[in-house]
Design goal:
With 371 residues, this protein is α+β, with helices and mostly antiparallel strands. It is built from 9 helices and 18 strands. Helix content is 25%, strand content 30%.
């Protein structure tokens, strides 16, 4: 069996049938409802892309940890937005057992059911997606038909830096894919009238370039992961107001707020920064996409921009993960391949002076918007 419970707990169980995906989802959801009645309920609303997302918390233990990186996208549900009554497109139910005193029903799958990135093969259907992440024991379930997701872990204290910096990413990724929107490993900068997607593999300079734009007066949508939609027109949306910087780069990025912890990234350790507050006015929630730019660290004194082929861009565009099922995987690959055919693409050979890179991108946006 999987590891959804810890031995020796005295939290109250929810003894319901959990034999299949639908039954287990129902049992887990009832555990959340019992937790909310026990510990009290909290709600937060956010507009992410064109979707209104409601986070329902049982108790307060995870409210701060899972909402700080989303704070720039918070909305007041009593003020009509893109819907007359702001009815949520997706509701995510969030709780832990330690603070609420309610146990998760035991998992009805075997240990060999786990696949890449914790996905549970036998509990992944057209309607229900399921993954359990061993690192901190987080269960993620999405029921597309019910427009409801579940996010549970045993102890809220087990929230790690990735969960805080990029909260609920997997659930949002699954949901957005079903809405023909895609979370990509990229940065984005610009204004509400036009944005640039910064693509490339790790180490290309995406984060530093995006954060330089934040500090230099050009709007910021993200430094590592952004949401992209292609219809009716290409759009880029902010997900998180966080940024990651190597300690040795701090001297070239003056003005950053104090770091809020360490963020392991591959073989490197970066400093994690939250920008909502100090730089709220520079955070852009959504922008029409004008171009794709692939930064390249060169050691040059001057920044230089040149056109590149759609093939080069496609090789540098990467989803944050590949879906479990082949149909959605094909959908994601086709969308990623279509992007460079819809938008002009450029290589930016980065200057060692960040302000020159910002000026180069600002001028590119001005030319594209004037065309």
């Amino acid at each position: 069996m999987g590891g959804l419970q810890r031995a020796g707990t005295d939290v109250s169980p929810v003894p319901l049938s959990t034999s299949g995906p639908e039954a287990f989802f129902l049992s887990a959801h009832q555990a959340f409802e019992l937790s909310a009645r026990t510990a009290g309920a909290e709600q937060r609303f956010f507009k992410i892309g064109n979707q209104i997302i409601c986070l329902q918390f049982a108790g307060k233990a995870m409210v701060s940890g899972l909402t700080r990186a989303l704070a720039h996208l918070a909305i007041d549900p009593t003020v009509p937005d893109h819907k007359p009554d702001n009815t949520p497109d997706l509701t995510i139910c969030i709780w832990d057992s330690q603070s609420t005193g309610v146990a998760m029903p035991p998992p009805p799958w075997n240990a060999d059911a786990y696949e890449a990135r914790g996905q549970i093969s036998s509990f992944w259907t057209q309607e229900i997606n399921t993954a359990y992440y061993m690192g901190n024991g987080t269960l993620n379930m999405l029921h597309l038909g019910e427009r409801t997701a579940l996010y549970w872990l045993y102890d809220a204290d087990d929230l790690n830096v990735y969960d805080r910096a990029m909260p609920l990413r997997n659930l949002l990724e699954w949901w957005m894919l079903a809405q023909d929107h895609y979370i990509l490993h990229c940065a984005a900068v610009g204004t509400v009238t036009g944005g640039l997607l910064l693509a490339g593999l790790g180490g290309a300079g995406k984060s530093n370039t995006a954060i330089s734009c934040l500090l230099g007066g050009l709007g910021y949508l993200g430094d590592d992961q952004c949401l992209v939609g292609l219809a009716p027109e290409p759009m880029v949306y902010s997900l998180y107001n966080t940024g990651r910087v190597l300690k040795e780069d701090l001297s070239r990025l003056m003005g950053l707020p104090a770091a809020d912890g360490l963020y392991p990234s591959g073989d490197e350790i970066k400093l994690l920064h939250y920008f909502c507050g100090t730089y709220s006015s520079a955070l852009v929630a959504a922008a029409p996409l004008r171009a794709i730019v692939m930064p390249k660290v060169t050691g040059r004194k001057e920044a230089q921009l040149s056109s590149i082929s759609p093939h080069e861009v496609f090789m540098g565009l990467s989803p944050v993960s590949m879906p479990h099922d082949l149909a959605r995987r094909r959908q994601l690959i086709e969308a990623t391949a279509r992007m460079p055919r819809l938008l002009p693409s450029y290589r930016l050979e980065l200057s060692t002076t960040p302000a020159l890179n910002v000026d180069c991108l600002r001028q590119l946006l001005q030319r594209l918007e004037a065309a």
